[in-house]
Amino acid sequence: MKTTAPAAPLVPMTTPPPNPLEDLSRLLASDMAETNKLILERMQSEIPLIPQLAGYLIAAGGKRIRPLMTLASTRLFDNDTDRAYRLAAAVEFIHTATLLHDDVVDESNQRRGQASANAVFGNQSSVLVGDFLFSKSFELMVEDGSIEVLGILSKASAIIAEGEVLQLSIQNSLETTLNQYERVIAAKTAALFAAACEIGAVITDQSAPIQKSLHDYGHHVGMAFQIADDILDYQSSSEELGKSIGDDFKEGKMTAPVIFALESAQKSSSKEELDFWARTIGNKDITDNDLKQAQSLIKKTGSDTKTIKLAENHIQKAHNALEILEESHIKSLFLDLANYTLHRKN
Fold first, then answer.
1. R_g (Cα) of the chain, nearest Å
2. 102: part of which helix (H) or strand (E)?
3. End-to-end alpha-carbon separation of the chain, Å?
4. Which of 6, 108, 162, 235 has the lowest tally of Cβ within 10 angstroms?
5. How far are the Cα atoms of 83, 243, 272 from residue 112, in angstroms, in the given order?
6. 3-state SS, residue 4
7. Using N-to-C axis directions, what is the helix angle for 178-185 and 147-170, rounded to 10°?
8. What is 221-288 written as a DSSP string?
9. What is residue 321's three-state secondary structure?
10. Residue 2's pLDDT band (cuts 50, 70, 90)
11. So what's the architecture of 20-340 in CATH?
12. Is there a contact between 245 and 36 (Cβ–Cβ < 8 Å)?
């Protein structure tokens, strides 16, 4: 099913592309309705706090990007099967569970423009409901009956947990390398994107090369998505992001913009800049004006541009991964989605 047409060119940063998520949502509206129905049904429990807390986050305005990718990767090859509904719901439960756990670890107070679940319901409840959702995701996988799918999603779940631990181990460490950072986001974010896309090809019995192409596409979109999110944290207003800016900075996370800025300070032997990053990121000694100073240094050293180029590299790889596929409307939307990662506001 090889196509000779080249991958669509990247959209320049100065020309924001249309939002392909809206088109995907419209195209897959009936599939998403069935998936949402299953999500609401399976998060129910005789313990009222469980659906209350789970629903608080699930209904908080998330775009359902990952389950949409599972549905879309299925509809690339099969317009009839309903197997994708259970698996898309499982993907959303895994994602929601990781958000609940992540906010507890990061001591976050806000998520998707509102108070985080742990801020409202407490850390203990958030962790336990996250565990409940993980369990429900595995129930859905078992019901599907594919050992291969179970392997893909269970492996992704383990990788996500490893990414959280790795991020925790390098937090506030000025020795963190770009390679370590990419390992963290490959695990924390890209692993589930990759799995969400790959299982659509698996349940429609596509060849191993096509399954790999969807996996690789999801991986690189996930990488670009997280890199873009990390630069937004130093660029945007809280109104644009729908969350507090500077959270990564306050938590001492070594993301690409900081790693590039620190490299610049080391190359120029700027004691003032090195001392700033050591105090704020290394020692978490942050004053009211430090976020503005961090934003200024990231801009001054061109670290924002380097971060964008890093994301663009993954976007191009996402395009390349789909070259094996025949031309279709969904393929075009997938290419647009890769471009869109650098232009979204939340």
1. 20
2. helix 83-106
3. 35
4. 6
5. 29, 6, 36
6. coil
7. 140
8. HHHHHHHHHHHHTTTS-HHHHTS-TTHHHHHT---HHHHHHHHHHHHTT-HHHHHHHIIIIIS----T
9. helix
10. very low
11. Orthogonal Bundle (1.10)
12. no
Nearest of 267, 254, 252, 342 to residue 301 by alpha carbon:
267
What are the pLDDT digits (tens) for 67-80? 999 999 999 999 99
Which tokens go with 279? 């105090």
Please, which contacts does 27-30 make with residues 24 or more away whose CB atoms are closer than 8 Å?
27/72, 27/75, 27/329, 27/330, 27/333, 28/68, 28/71, 28/72, 28/75
Residues 94, 317: Cα–Cα separation, whole Å: 26
Cα torsion 144, 331, 217, 305 to 10°: value is -140
Q: Any residues with CB less than 8 A from the CB of 24 and at least 6 apart, and which?
A: 68, 72, 330, 333, 337
Q: Are 15 and 343 in contact (CB under 8 A)?
A: no
pLDDT score at 246: 84
Task: Give residue-wise pLDDT tens across range 221-240.
Answer: 999 999 999 998 887 554 44
CA–CA separation, 246 and 145 (whole Å): 43
Report the interhelical angle of 178-185 vs 208-232 (nearest 10°): 110
